[in-house]
Amino acid sequence: MKDRRLFLRRSAAVVSGAVAAALVGRASAEPLAGEPWERVYGAGFTRYGQPSRFEQPVGRHFGQPYGELAPGSGAALSPIEALEGIITPNPVHFIRSHSGTPDIDPKAHRLYIHGLVDRPLRFSVDALLHYPRITRTYFLECSGNSSRALTPQPAQVPAGAMHGNISCAEWTGFPLRMLLEEAGVRPQAKWILAEGADSAHMSRSVPLEKALDDAVIALYQNGERLRPEQGYPLRLLLPGWEGNMSVKWLRRIKLTDEPTHTKDETSKYTDALPDGRALQFTFEMGVKSVITRPSSTMQLAERGFQEISGIAWSGAGRVRRVEVSTDGGKTWAEAALTGAERPRALVRFRYPWQWNGGTALLQSRAIDEKGNVQPVRRDWVARYAPDARFHNNSIVSWAVETDGRVKHVYA
Ligand SMILES: Nc1nc2c(c(=O)[nH]1)N[C@H]1C(S)=C(S)[C@@H](COP(=O)(O)O)O[C@H]1N2
Ligand SMILES: [Mo]
C-alpha cells in the first residue's frame, strides 16, 4: 500500500507538464477553424471494419525457416511493439504452425474421444456448438518464443520479431472435462493424446489432471469464431502451458495410461541441459515480461517524459509485480499494472520515466503469485545447453543511446 502511494505520487510529479513543449501547442481564445472533414457528410458503414488509413499498417513478423518451400511452417509473430493493452487483435495473433493452415470444412470435421473410456464418442462441430459456454482470457506462448534472443549477437529487430510468439485473447468454448465425463474416463486413464487435423497431425500428450482441470475446447476468439490460423473450427487450450500443447484443428482425443511420446514431444520441445541430458516435459511457461515501448529499433524523439510500458505473464498464475530498471538492474522500481487480477493472462505494466538525454539500460522483471522471479539472462543461459532453444524467459535489455536510438543488448 505504501509502495503504491509512493508510485502514484511519483507518477504525478513526473507527468504534470512534463511532455516536451514541442509536442504540446499553446491554445488561445480564437474560433476553431474547422477541418475539411467537419464540413462534409462522412463515409457509409463498413461490414467488417478496418484501421484508419492514416495509421501505419500493423502486421506480424514472419519467421519462415524453409522460406517459400513451406510458407506456412515456422511462425508469424505478433507485433507486440505496436500493440497496447492486453488483448491481441485476431488479425495479428501470433501463428505457429508445422504444416500450414488446413482449409477445414466444419460440416465434415469430427472430434473423436476414444481409448480408455466407457463410451467412445464422435462429435460434429454443430453438436459442439450446442454445449453451454464459458469465456476466459488467457495468454498463449510458444515455448520457442524468444529463441531469437539466444543468437551469439543481439539481433537488431523489433521486439515482436524476437518476443512476439505470445498473444492474449478472450477465448470462448467449454471445459474439455465436459466431453471426457460424457465419454466416461476409465480409472486406468492417466494421460490424453490430443491430435490435430493438419497434415502434420501434430499431437501431444497431456496429463489427465490438466485435461480435467482448466483445459478448454475453444470455439471463439475475441468474440468471433476462431481464425483458421488459430485452429478453426476448434482447438484445445491449456492455460499457462507451452503453446505447442494447445493443439489446433483438434480431431482426436485418446485416453491413455502413459504419455504417447509423439514426435512433437521427443525430437522437439525438449530442453537440452549442459550435461547432455534433456528435460522431456516442461509444461508450465515461466514468469516473464518484456518492455514493448520503447524497444529495439525505436528512436526516442524528445528528452523528458517517456512512458515505459510492456507486457508480463506467468504460466503459474497471476503476475504479482513488475519492476523496471533504467540502469541495467542496479536499481528497480515498481510499475503500475493493468489486468493483474486475471491468472494466466497478459498484464500491461507502465512506468513513468524522465529521459535526460543520457544513456540508459532498460529492463523489466516480473514476479508471480507463487514467488517465481524472472531470471537474468546470464543465469538462464548457464542452466541449459548452448543449443537450447525453448523456454527462454530471461530478462530483456534495451539500451538507449544519447541520440535516442534504442538497441537490443545482452546484459
Ligand atoms: N494441429 C496443430 N496444433 C498446433 C500447432 C500445429 O502446428 N498443428 N502448433 C502448436 C504450437 S508450436 C503453438 S506455439 C500453438 C500456436 O497457436 P497459434 O498459432 O494459435 O498462436 O499451437 C500449437 N498447436
Ligand atoms: Mo510452439
Brief synopsis:
This protein has 411 residues and is mainly β.
Summarize the structure in words.
By secondary structure, this protein is mainly β. The chain has two domains: 110-277, Alpha-Beta Complex (Sulfite Oxidase, Chain A, domain 2); 288-409, Immunoglobulin-like. The chain has six helices and 24 strands. The protein has helices at 2-15, 125-128, 159-163, 176-183, 208-213, 377-383, and strands at 61-63, 74-77, 95-97, 110-115, 121-124, 134-141, 166-175, 191-196, 203-207, 216-221, 224-225, 235-237, 250-256, 271-272, 278-279, 288-293, 304-313, 319-325, 333-334, 336-338, 347-355, 360-368, 397-400, 406-409. The strands form six sheets. Strands 5-4-13-8-9 form a five-stranded mixed sheet. Strands 6, 7, 10, 11 and 12 form a five-stranded antiparallel sheet that branches. A five-stranded antiparallel sheet has the order 19-18-22-23-24. The longest helix has 14 residues, at 2-15. Residues 1-8 have low confidence and may be disordered. The structure holds the ligand Nc1nc2c(c(=O)[nH]1)N[C@H]1C(S)=C(S)[C@@H](COP(=O)(O)O)O[C@H]1N2 and molybdenum atom. Molybdenum atom binds next to loops.
